[in-house]
Amino acid sequence: MKLNRRSFIKSAAATSAIAAAGSIFPGISFANWKRQDGSIGQVTWKKTPCRFCGTGCGLLVGVMGDRAVAVKGDPNCSVNKGLCCVKGYHSIQALYGKDRITKAKVRKGGKMVEVPIAEALDLVAAKLQETRKKYGKDSVAIYGSGQWTIPDGYVASKLFKGCLGTNNVEANARLCMASAVTGFFTTFGIDEPMGCYEDIEHADVFVTWGNNMAEMHPVLFSRMLASRKRRGNVTIIDFATRTTRTSQAADKSIIFRPNTDLAVANAICYEIIRNDWVNWDFVEKHTTFHKGKTNIGYGTEDHFSFKDKPESITFEEYKEFLKDYTPEKVEKISGVSARDIKYLASLYGDPTKKCTSFWCMGMNQHVRGTWINNLVYNIHLLTGKISTPGNSPFSLTGQPSACGTVREVGTLTHKLPHGVVMNEHDRKLAAEIWDVPVSNIDPKPTYHTVEMFRALDRGDIRFMWIQVTNPMITMPNLNRYRNGALKEDRFIVVSDVYPTPTTDVADVILPATFWIEQEGMFGNSERRTQHFERIVPGPGETMSDTWQIIEVARRLGFQKQFPWSEENYIEKIWEEYRRFHNNPKHNMAPYKVLKARSGVQWPFVNGKETRWRFNAKYDPACKPGTDFDFYGKKDGKAWIWARPYEPAAESPDKEYDFWLNTGRVIEHWHTGSLTRRIPVLHRAVPESYVEINPEDAAELGIVNGEKVRIISRRGSVVMKASINGRGVPPRGMVFVPFFDESYKINEVTLDAFCPISKQPDYKKCAVRLEKA
Q1: Which residues in the chain are classed under CATH 3.40.50.740?
Q2: End-to-end alpha-carbon separation of the chain, Å?
Q3: Which residues of this UniProt protein bind [4Fe-4S] cluster (predicted)?
Q4: In the chain, which residues fall in CATH 3.30.200.210?
Q5: CA–CA separation, 62 vs 93, rounded Å?
Q6: Would you say the C-alpha torsion 428, 430, 436, 441 has a positive or negative sign?
Q7: Residue 166 known to bind ligand
Q8: What 3-state class would DSSP assign to 235?
Q9: Active site residue: 64, 77, 163, 176, which one?
């Protein structure tokens, strides 16, 4: 296209303006904004949730032609109110990495060869069918993600559980949110937080339980800081195992020894009762007391199974149980002073203060993850600080749809979209909606994530389809599971957008569309479902994960169950899925409502969102005449649990004398397969590192930037030391972010897990350090 003088001047002016805006204004990021001919076109803006964490920030993506060229926060989204974090502002650049997978590949003669995607899908269907016939229905599995869209997860569950008859469906949210789920179920009988982000503007006290919110959920943390600045009487407590950016911004930082949060939570409850800070009216009307099994193991052996046996106890028996958790006794266990424990209890116990507790992986990636969730709920239930504005125990989510696609759709082995496979009524409803015989749906769960990869290693599973996740980096005790995937007579299919260590072990690689190259929905931490349309086309032969599954399902003969056309399949899937939740406790908004808004909270009843559940003032599912109704339990009462402190599965000793803790940094997300392809984020933190306490470093003769070998009983990794960086662990601990595939820290971690939730503990294992 040739430009005349007028067009050239106009284009040059626009180019200068956009370049200036991108460098000056923090609220908007421009990229890829020139046409191939060098001219500037009209930018149109489309709404979408952010692709990264589970906060669910709303974005507006600027599109020019068929390319995304700019990003800004969506001011109409109540989550972020126009603000984004550094990842959100640069998110669209993840669409345009030079090594995007745009063609299907199949392993032939030991080498990956490009083939038409139809041929690759034919092979996937043929190998899936062949494996089932040869080894049985439970020899095939699909492993997905909290990055799956809701339609992705829904069709995966429908195909495998409804049509193929296997419950071998899991998602990587088992690695990050399962303990939140089981904590909620065991206390309330139903899943997902009762509060919402609006709690932030009402709360007087925030306690972040093992959660570096400043880096993990920065937009929500900024709302906390803004509330403190605006109101002046807000207190933020950082309760953590290392000093972080959250610690620096908090009013007080309290450091505890790993796994001892259990003891501290019990000590807080002890103090609440001792000082008569109990909300007796609430407790007597709305709670009951229970205990379960103790000394329940750590899940390190194959075929591990555990079933809790809850027993009712009296308040007096619960009070007696807490006598082992006086602040003075717990100080010796936890390293937290009795004075600080009493201070925490006084904040929760003050009837004039509204308290919100936030947590994420620090509590959930825990060998007693269910228990510590229960114990924090105990604090809120004893004081009645729950289900009202500003009073919220709130589990935050790590992935954009870990709630929507995993917890709501039910992409875990025991789950169905509305219930569990063990329940006959739930199976019958699923069979009716899916149009399959009820006998197709197996009443027995099969393998949770860790056991699924153990089954792949053993050979019980021979075919695995992996979508939207990178388990060859994220699995704990990684060497075992990578070696298992590479064994003979295993067939691995991977759907992804970039090459990863997981595509390295694949027999078939399917090119996937990414985020706004497809239509879909996510579900965030506060029960908010967020729709996004197909904003730009995907490159090459990329295909959405949803449509890949549909194509394979049809090749397997399930055309009747997957009848949709490419023009409207998302709407049709959504309206079918809504039938599972057609009740006041979980009703989902219609497709047209989702499409029009920047997210809608469920339960969505009579055209209204429910902001606080279990409170009759806000929740239409509560029984008439009640003030609170915890309707997940038959009697409408929440359970207060007597759960003891127990040590971690593996603790430091003379040979391995350091704790290893792993996590994230603000610039990168999960395994870095997206954020490391965003130049500005990669330049900011180009490689991983190990944080070492400066006193430990001095004792070992290690200086900043020097290479260090981290060794456990399972493996080792060499990386550079970070001393007095953004985070500082206490003496005897090191911390490693896991975003860098060049440093596979999960070769070092332990695959122990919470016996109830089956979620692994990435925060605690024993290592030693050597100068490399």
Answers
A1: 104-171+414-520+531-556
A2: 58
A3: 50, 53, 57, 85
A4: 5-96
A5: 12
A6: negative
A7: no
A8: strand
A9: 176
Contact 56, 530 (CB under 8 A): yes
Residue 5 confidence (pLDDT): 55
177 is catalytic: yes
pLDDT over 50 (residue 364): yes
Max CA separation in the chain (angstroms): 87
With a CB cutoff of 8 Å and minimum separation 6, the contacts of 419 are 410, 425, 426, 429
Q: Which of 213, 216, 360, 361 is catalytic?
A: 361
Binding residue per annotation — 662?
yes
**pLDDT single digits (tens) 369-413:** 999 999 999 999 999 999 999 999 999 999 999 999 999 999 999
Catalytic residue among 58, 62, 398, 727: 398
| Yes or no: domain 104-171+414-520+531-556 corresponds to CATH 3.40.50.740 | yes
Q: Where in the chain is the domain with CATH 2.40.40.20?
A: 658-749
Q: Which residue among the candidates 87, 353, 415, 637 is catalytic per the annotation?
A: 87
Q: What is the mean pLDDT of the chain?
A: 94
Query: Strands, DSSP E only, in 241-381?
Result: 252-255, 287-291, 311-313, 355-359
Residues in the chain, total = 772
CA distance linking residue 756 with residue 128, whole number of Å: 31
Phi first, then psi: give them for residue 736, nearest 5 degrees.
-130, 125
pLDDT at 259: 98
Cα 299 → chain centroid = 21
Query: According to the annotation, is 763 in a ligand binding site?
Result: yes
The question of whether 194 is a catalytic residue gets the answer no
| Class of CATH domain 658-749 | mainly beta
In the chain, helix, strand, coil percent, each to 5? Answer: 35, 20, 45
> If you classify domain 178-396+632-642 with CATH, what class do you get?
alpha beta
Condensed to tens digits (0 to 9), the pLDDT of residues 372-383 reads 999 999 999 999
pLDDT, residue 15, reads 45
Residues 267 and 239: beta-carbon distance below 8 Å: no
pLDDT in tens, 175-231: 999 999 999 999 999 999 999 999 999 999 999 999 999 999 999 999 999 999 999
Tell me, yes or no, if 213 is annotated catalytic: no
Neighbours of 290 (CB within 10 A): 19
Let me know: does 301 contact 295? Beta carbons within 8 Å: no
- Type of residue numbered 623: K
Is 548 annotated as contributing to ligand binding?
no
Catalytic residue among 77, 177, 543, 754: 177
Helix (H, G, I), strand (E, B) or coil at 349: helix
Q: Which amino acid is at 597?
A: R
Q: Of 93, 183, 399, 464, which residue is the catalytic one?
A: 399
Q: What is the pLDDT of residue 481?
A: 95
Alpha carbons 6 and 16: distance in angstroms, whole number: 16
Q: What is the pTM of this model?
A: 0.94
User: What's the CA gap between 93 and 258, in Å, rounded?
Assistant: 38
Asked if the 5-96 domain carries CATH number 3.30.200.210, the reply is yes
Q: Is 738 annotated as a binding residue?
A: yes
Task: Give the integer Cα–Cα distance in Å for 431 and 446.
Answer: 19
Judge whether 515 and 529 are in contact, CB under 8 Å: no
Q: Is 134 exposed, middle or buried (0-12, 13-18, 19+ CB in 10 A)?
A: exposed
DSSP-assigned letter for residue 729: P
CA distances from 185 to 163, 409, 447, 742 (A): 28, 16, 20, 38
Task: Say whether 664 counts as a known binding-site residue.
Answer: yes
87 is in an annotated binding site: yes
Q: Is 434 annotated as a binding residue?
A: no
Bridge-partner residues for 70, per DSSP?
Answer: 30, 62
Q: Confirm or deny that 85 is annotated as ligand binding.
A: yes
